[in-house]
């Protein structure tokens, strides 16, 4: 009996020592578990000071809003615009130059309320944990979603990009966009059109001074960070196009990844949580060179 405890301790220590971290699982994911993001779904925002933000658009969830955003980018709507709002633990918001020009002829001022999506159109990889905002949560085609069995919808996790709007029935036209920079404001789910997420450069936004005006808006034009240009990646020269992938959320690697985030057993952790919130499972993404994109 005296030997049992040391033996069990050794086995437990070996188990803990060998447990992988989420980052290790992602690093070891085979190439086949990664999916390329087409340049047509990437938006490149270049800020003053040579800072760049890359955004992945979500046309399957908000096709009309995304179509408008692409048309606005092609019409150079945001060129010489600015970051106009930075609200602590909430959002960063940007807009075109002031006074705002009229919408380009190919863009629409009135769009449908693209706040939810028929569940039957897209498969769902669910998380088996209770959520405060939706009966079902999980991942659909690489995106964090909530659901109720009939519909699914994108969720306001960190880095998600949404469309600024006025009071209902206004749904926003895509001319003013924001990204989440704090605790997930999930109460906004199904109330605003979410159109994408920031893949790269969010540090350039989160580090900005907070606005002192109402709701974090800058009071003075001089406080605003200028936007040099916003372009769809597919409209840039090939040499300037960024290339990104996301870890497929229906892959075995992603299943191991979220399970490990819910039950951390690597050496730092004393007790695994046995649960995880949707927005605490960020879908892994990575930049890739053109020659290393996944063949299909």
TrEMBL record:
The keyword Acetylation does not apply. Keywords: Isomerase. GO terms for molecular function: peptidyl-prolyl cis-trans isomerase activity. Gene3D superfamilies: Cyclophilin-like (2.40.100.10). SUPFAM superfamilies: Cyclophilin-like. This is Peptidylprolyl isomerase. It comes from Kozakia baliensis.
């Amino acid at each position: 009996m005296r030997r049992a405890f040391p033996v069990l301790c050794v086995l437990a220590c070996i188990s803990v020592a060998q447990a992988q971290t989420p980052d290790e699982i992602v690093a070891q994911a085979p190439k086949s578990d990664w999916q390329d993001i087409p340049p047509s779904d990437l938006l490149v925002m270049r800020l003053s000071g040579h800072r760049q933000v890359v955004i992945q658009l979500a046309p399957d969830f908000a096709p009309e809003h995304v179509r408008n955003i692409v048309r606005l980018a092609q019409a150079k709507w945001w060129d010489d615009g600015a970051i106009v709002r930075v609200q602590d633990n909430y959002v960063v918001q940007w807009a075109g130059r002031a006074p705002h020009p009229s919408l380009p002829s190919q863009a629409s001022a009135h769009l449908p309320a693209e706040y939810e999506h028929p569940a039957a159109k897209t498969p769902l990889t669910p998380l088996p944990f209770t959520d405060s905002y939706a009966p079902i949560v999980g991942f659909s085609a690489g995106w964090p979603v909530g659901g109720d069995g009939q519909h699914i919808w994108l969720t306001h996790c960190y880095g998600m990009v949404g469309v600024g709007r006025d009071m209902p029935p206004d749904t926003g036209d895509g001319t003013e966009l924001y990204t989440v920079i704090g605790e997930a404001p999930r109460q906004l789910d199904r109330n605003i059109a979410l159109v994408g997420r920031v893949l790269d450069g969010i540090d350039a936004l989160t580090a900005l001074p907070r606005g002192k005006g109402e709701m974090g808006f800058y009071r003075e034009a001089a406080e605003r960070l200028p936007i040099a240009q916003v372009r769809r990646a597919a409209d840039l020269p090939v040499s300037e196009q960024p290339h990104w992938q996301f870890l497929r959320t229906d892959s075995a690697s992603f299943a191991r990844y979220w399970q490990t985030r819910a039950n951390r057993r690597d050496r730092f952790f004393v007790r695994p949580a046995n649960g995880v919130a949707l927005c605490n499972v960020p879908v892994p993404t990575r930049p890739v060179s053109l020659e290393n994109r996944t063949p299909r």
